[in-house]
Write a structure and sequence with these properties.
The protein has helices at about 5-25, 30-50, 70-80, 95-105, 170-180, 195-205, 220-225, 240-245, 285-300, 325-335, 335-340, 345-400, 405-420, 430-450; strands spanning about 60, 85-90, 110-115, 130-135, 140-145, 160, 190, 210, 230-235, 250-255, 270-275, 275-280. The chain is an alpha/beta fold and about 450 residues long. It is rod-shaped, with a radius of gyration of 40 Å. The relative contact order is 0.11.
Length: about 450
C-alpha cells in the first residue's frame, strides 16, 4: 500500500537519520530504529512527567464551626496561600474530632486539618502526619457563681455545656470531668452546645458553666464572657497535677490585666490548662504545599500573645502524630532555595526538572563514558578474532605440507574472507577493517608462494 504524501515526506528524513546512526555505530537498521524509538519514548515520558506532575493549586482544609478561631485562622491561611497561587477550600466542622475522622477516612476529600491534642483515642492515626504544633489551645471554663471557682469538682451537680459531638472541647471536658468523678448520667447535667449558644445560655442563666475552646468559640464570645458581671473564669489551681497526669496538656498562665488594663481583668494571674493544636495532613501532601502551609503558619501564629512568646510557634512538637519528613526539613533549614527566590509556579517547574534530570545525568554521563569503550572493545574483539584465525592458518604454512593440505587452507581462508566481508563496523574502525582485509590477502599470497 502506497504511503500518503505527508508520510513519504516524513519517511525520508527519518530514513536518513537511521542510516547515519547505523553507519556510524555499525548497527543493523532494525536495532538502530529500536534505539531511536526508545530514546523518543523516554523523552516523551519525561516531558509528560514535567507537564502533568505539578503540585496541586487547590487544597482542602477541614477547620471548625463558623466564627470559631479554627475557621478564622483557616481564612487567614487562605489569603496567604492565594497570594502564592494556591486556593484553600475551607470545610466547616464540629471541631478536632470530626477533623481527625475526616482525615482518617480515605473516601473523604480533604488534605489537611486542625486537630488539638488528646482526641486520638477512637481514631486510627498511623497513616497521618503532623506539620507541627501551631498554638496553645487553652480550655476556658466560665462559671456563673458568687465567687471564682478553682476546682473542677466544684461543678458537681450543675448544668454544664461541654461542647457539641465531634469537638475536641467535648472530648477534653469529659476527660477532666471523669478525672474528678463526674460522669454522664449522674447528678450533673451535660449539655451539647457550641460556643455562641453556650455563651448565651450562660448569660441567661439556663446553664451554670461552659467549657469553651478556640475550636468551638470565637474570641468575641470569650471576651464578652470575661467582661460579664457574675461570670468568672475558673482558675485551675491543680494545673500542675493535670499536666503530669494528662501528658498532652500544658500549664498556661493568663497574666493579670491582660484582658483589660483599666478594669484589671483578670484581677490576678489565672492558671489554665490546654493542649496544643497541630496541622495534621495526609502523607500524600506535596512537599511544596507543606512548605507553603508552614510559611503561612509562621505568619499567622508566630507573633507573641498573652499565652505564647514571639516565634514559639509553629514548632515540631511530636505528640500523637509523627512529624512529616518535609516538615522536619523545613524546621531545620527553612524553605528550599528555589521556593525562597522564585515564584511558586516557576520554583515548582524547576524543582521537577531537577528531580528528573539530575538522576538521569548522574546515570547518563558515566554511561556515555563507558558505552563507547565497551562498544569499541566489542568491535575490536570481532576483528581480533579473525586475526587469531589468520595467525593459526599462517602457522600451518610453517609445518610440513601434506597432499591436499593446501586446498584445505585455501578453503578456510576463503571462509574467513567471506565472514570478514559480511562484518558491519562503524566508519571509525575503517582502518582496522581494511587492514584486516589486506592481511587476508597477504596470507593468501604466502599460501600461493608455498611450494
Amino acid at each position: 500500500m502506497a504511503l500518503a504524501p505527508n508520510a513519504q515526506v516524513l519517511k525520508k528524513p527519518v530514513d536518513r537519520v537511521v542510516g547515519v546512526f547505523a553507519e556510524t555505530f555499525g548497527l543493523a537498521r532494525t536495532v538502530t530504529t529500536g534505539i531511536i524509538l526508545l530514546v523518543v519514548f523516554v523523552a516523551m515520558s519525561v516531558t509528560c512527567f514535567l507537564l502533568m506532575s505539578p503540585p496541586p493549586n487547590v487544597i482542602t482544609m477541614t477547620a471548625g464551626p463558623k466564627d470559631s478561631i479554627f475557621t478564622m485562622n483557616a481564612e487567614k491561611y487562605a489569603v496567604i496561600l492565594e497570594s502564592k497561587g494556591v486556593k484553600l477550600n475551607i470545610l466547616p466542622s464540629e471541631g478536632s474530632l470530626e477533623n481527625l475522622k475526616r482525615l482518617s477516612d480515605p473516601a473523604f476529600r480533604v488534605d489537611i486539618g486542625f486537630v488539638q491534642g488528646g482526641v486520638t483515642n477512637s481514631v486510627t492515626t498511623d497513616k497521618l502526619v503532623s506539620l507541627g504544633s501551631i498554638s496553645y489551645q487553652p480550655l476556658l471554663v466560665f462559671c456563673r457563681s458568687d465567687k471564682p471557682l478553682t476546682l473542677i469538682s466544684e461543678l458537681t451537680g450543675k448544668r454544664l455545656a461541654v461542647g457539641p459531638e465531634g469537638s475536641g472541647t467535648r472530648s477534653l471536658a469529659l476527660t477532666l470531668l471523669e478525672a474528678n468523678g463526674i460522669k454522664p448520667g449522674g447528678s450533673t447535667t451535660l449539655v451539647d452546645l457550641e460556643g455562641k449558644a453556650a455563651s448565651k445560655a450562660l448569660q441567661e442563666g439556663s446553664i451554670d458553666a461552659a467549657f469553651l475552646m478556640g475550636e468551638s468559640a470565637s474570641r468575641d464570645v470569650m471576651r464578652t464572657l470575661l467582661r460579664t458581671e457574675g461570670i468568672h473564669l475558673l482558675d485551675f489551681s491543680q494545673a500542675d497535677a493535670y499536666t503530669r497526669r494528662i501528658t498532652y496538656l500544658n500549664k498556661l498562665v493568663l497574666p493579670r490585666g491582660s484582658i483589660e488594663f483599666g478594669k484589671d481583668l483578670p484581677p490576678h494571674d489565672l492558671n489554665l490548662i490546654g493542649p496544643t493544636v497541630e496541622i495534621i495532613a495526609r502523607p500524600s501532601l506535596h512537599p511544596a504545599l507543606s512548605d507553603l502551609l508552614l510559611e503561612a503558619a509562621r505568619e499567622v501564629h508566630g507573633h507573641a500573645t498573652v499565652l505564647q512568646r514571639q516565634g514559639e510557634f509553629p514548632a515540631p512538637l511530636e505528640h500523637d502524630f509523627r512529624i512529616s519528613e518535609d516538615a522536619s526539613r523545613f524546621y531545620k533549614s527553612g524553605k528550599s532555595l528555589l521556593y525562597r527566590w522564585l515564584p511558586f509556579w516557576m520554583a515548582s517547574l524547576v524543582n521537577r526538572i531537577i528531580v528528573v534530570f539530575v538522576p538521569m545525568i548522574l546515570v547518563v554521563i558515566p554511561g556515555l563514558r563507558i558505552i563507547p569503550k565497551m562498544y569499541r572493545w566489542q568491535v575490536q574483539r570481532r576483528i581480533y578474532r579473525w586475526y587469531g584465525e589468520l595467525l593459526v592458518l599462517e602457522r600451518s604454512l610453517l609445518a610440513r605440507m601434506e597432499p591436499g593440505k593446501r586446498q584445505e587452507l585455501i578453503q578456510r581462508l576463503d571462509q574467513i574472507e567471506q565472514a570478514v566481508n559480511k562484518m558491519k563496523v562503524p566508519s571509525s574502525f575503517a582502518d582496522q577493517f581494511y587492514g584486516l582485509r589486506g592481511h587476508i590477502n597477504f596470507v593468501r599470497d604466502r599460501l600461493a608462494d608455498r611450494p
